[in-house]
Amino acid sequence: MPTDDILLVLRQNWGHQAFRPMQEDIIRSVLAGQDTLALLPTGGGKSICFQVPALARPGLCLVVSPLIALMKDQVENLRKRGIKAEAVYSGMSHQEIDQTLDNCVYGPVKFLYVSPERLLTDMFRARVGRMKVSLLAVDEAHCLSQWGYDFRPPYLQIAALRELLPGVPVIALTATATEQVKLDIVEKLRFGPGHRVFQQSFARPNLSYSALPTEDKLRRLLEVVRGVGADKTSIVYARTRRQTEDTAAYLQQHGLKAAAYHAGLPSDQRTRTQQDWMENRIRCIVATNAFGMGIDKPDVRLVVHLEAPDNLEAYYQEAGRAGRDEKYAFAVLLHGPNDADELRRRTQQTYPPLDTVRRVYQALANFSRTAVGGGELVAFDFDIQQFAETYRIKALDAHNSLRTLAREGFVQLNEAVNTPARVHIPIDHHDLYRFQVANEQHDKLIKSLLRFNGGELFSGFQRISENSLAQHLKLSVLDVRKTLLFLHRSGIIQYQPRQESPQALFTTPRYDADKLPLDQKRLLQARDLARDKTEAVIRYAAGGRCRQQLLLEYFGELDAPACKVCDFCLAEKKARQAPAPAADLRQQLLTLLKATPQTPREVLTHFAPGQATAVTEQLRELVEMGELKYAPDGRLG
Ligand code: ADP
């Protein structure tokens, strides 16, 4: 549907009546073929900025995105609107990736989402040149910068990808970027001359930020939640899984509809809790930062942090989930007397000694049974607790070493995402029929598969439900899986079992741990950067200025006016309305009594009860100075 009527594209596909501020300018820049950087706050409507121009032009839009959950969300959203979208990520089988990429070369696919480490694989490079790519979109573009808070080295490969796509414009999008990160994105993505940068202010006028010092966080939390309204939607961020559960239990005991959410819970429970919260059966979700990405609930009235994240980028994003409907909402950080030191200590720990990092790398190779030189991009199930116990590594060391390895581009850790089982039948009807006749014991299952999914199974991978098959065939789910696996091994079907555990993978061929090329200088730089970011968080919590201004300055907006709604601005306003200082009060009394003489008792009725002492004192002083005199009837004038 090539058209310049982008408003029509928006209305027809999304049903939105108009563009939000800046969306249209961004889209026009992309359509004019200019490399474009779009900085919009969370919830600002970034996806539309690349999806609309992609639909307005023939060809395919390649989207680089760092998180599987985010990709799946977007692909599903597009498909719901009848737009063909595909995704390629680790955890998919070689065949499935192969087929998806083929669809993008030969089929009418409009959007292909890829994780960055796929970009330079041979399989991808061989195909991408043959796809009719019209636009390259780089989502969460701050991941490309070492100065950002979430550096993903594979993002740097996008520059090389651009060489395979000459003349294709790029649009980079992010919700957080400091000046340094902006410059980095433009440079590392090799933006062409005439490129455009659009930045919407990150100010959130309807969001009241506060940071409350407290020695009893749970009690304070309860007060805050009740203060905003126990029947309102809220998110409480905690740092550990344990803390989410304890806090949710505490809130429940006090009669609130609260529930815990973290990556360690079974996936169906997580889905249910999230659903209950989305549909207002649960009002307060107490979560680790695993919760929130890709969630779009407009009426969140309150986001509380029981502990500060270690950088303001993360804080801004998480707090920013409040008040997306642009109505008044609150972002509250609770901080205890030792929090600043604790935060510093944690940041320090995030950078374990290099020996530990190497030891963890070696353990990971043993855990996954990966030989030197092998294992590149092959995902394996990875339970960090089990890993740490097996190799007697302290959980914290394991966690931080793996983070270092991920940041340096040697391994990747994927959050648990629930991927349903999928099946494709690669042979034709006749061959399948012959197999069914010869293997009667499997006939029923194959028939059920076809009955549930139809002929689509022959053209590509389809989601199947192992549970429904088991119910229908009166077998256990385990038996169904075994049979599917058998058929897979026999080449009759291609079967991707359901996945729901976190995964890890090596992003390079595995090194000998001793020869792992860790860049000491860069690691030290990263540590210093992390330390600076932590100090910025501590300054934010300490306050002393408008909190919105503090945040905006961090993101390079230096001239933002005071927000008037944060705790600091409100306290200032209150101070201004407080009892007038002595000189003002004296003037006020003189004006009042020169106009209408009255008794001290009558004078007091003009003032708030709290001011009585000050008023009486000023009256006495004015009489002593001779400015006021008593009349015989007791009135002052
Ligand atoms: P971001 O990625 O910037 O956080 P999204 O692209 O997810 O934001 O958009 C946030 C929400 O705003 C979505 O529900 C989206 O449908 C909605 N939205 C985006 N653009 C518009 C628009 N022009 N009019 C109305 N709603 C919009």
TrEMBL record:
PROSITE patterns (UniProt xref): HELICASE_ATP_BIND_1, HELICASE_CTER
GO CC terms in record: bacterial nucleoid; cytoplasm; replisome
Enzyme class: isomerase
Domain Helicase C-terminal: 217-365
BP GO annotations: DNA recombination; DNA repair
Classification via InterPro entries: DEAD/DEAH_box_helicase_dom, DNA_helicase_ATP-dep_RecQ, Helicase_ATP-bd, Helicase_C-like, P-loop_NTPase, RecQ_Zn-bd, WH-like_DNA-bd_sf, WH_DNA-bd_sf
Record carries keyword Acyltransferase: no
Keyword Membrane in record: no
GO molecular function, one term: DNA binding
Alphabetized SUPFAM superfamilies for the sequence: P-loop containing nucleoside triphosphate hydrolases, Winged helix' DNA-binding domain
UniProt catalytic activity: Couples ATP hydrolysis with the unwinding of duplex DNA by translocating in the 3'-5' direction
Documented EC number(s): 5.6.2.4
UniProt-listed SMART domains: DEXDc, HELICc
The Helicase ATP-binding domain, residue ranges: 27-195
Keyword annotations: ATP-binding, DNA-binding, Helicase, Hydrolase, Isomerase, Metal-binding, Nucleotide-binding
CDD domains found in the cross-reference section: DEXHc_RecQ, SF2_C_RecQ
Family listed: Belongs to the helicase family. RecQ subfamily.
Name of the protein described by the UniProt record: ATP-dependent DNA helicase RecQ
